[in-house]
Amino acid sequence: MIKHFREIYTMMRGFGPARMAVVNPQQEYLQYVLDKTEQKEIIEPLVFLNDDPVIAAIEAVEAVASGKADLLMKGDIDTAQLLSIILNKDYGLRTDKLLSHVAVVETPFYNRLMLCSDGGINIKLNEETVPAIVENALSLASSLDIQQPNVAFLSLVETITPKLPSTKLWDKMTKKYKSDERLIAEGPLALDVALSTRAAEKKAIKSNVSGKADIFIGPTITSTNMMVKALMIVGGAKGGGLILGAKCP
To answer: What is the DSSP string of 100-166?
Structure first.
């Protein structure tokens, strides 16, 4: 089970550099990151530059779809513009799967990586989209050698509350995955309970996920996005985001 980014770097070096198509990396910090990761033999950057970032994105997406690159990285281009190209079946990356965003976060205050979803793609969470979001997160967890990951469906409280639609949805999702041996899912859970056994004990909540959750599914795109940004800006965490569900990350 991989718990730290340094373990990811070690694993990636074992595979050899991944060919990464990078869309329009104009800013200095992007060039710095690409240079560093290339020096560490983690990636082989294939840079696509153009005065029109849409053209650069099309060329990069086509490179990945044709097998000339393994991964796609967003540079200086509007996210909506890049997604519209990825979602266009004419360019060869889109599949029948739902796209979802997973942030991989490492914080010094938690005992494992946090896979947080979906803070970037899906606005509507329901009985159709959530299973697809979970499947994408499970795929990533498997790549990180996380066996039978613990999944926390997050809400404000742990009780089913009519005025909080997420509590009813998470109750349904927990029941859906009850017999699925690939994961252990619980919800609704407040974030403190998902992160801390002490919080669960104070609330007299018996949980198999508390204090060891691997995957955190937020109740809204906004709350998940804010949680990840708060962890990284004031919580001493580091992380990165992936969009899953296409032919490549």
So the answer is: EEEEEEE-TTSSS-EEEE-SSS-S--STTHHHHHHHHHHHHHHHTT--S-EEEEE-S-SS--TT-HH
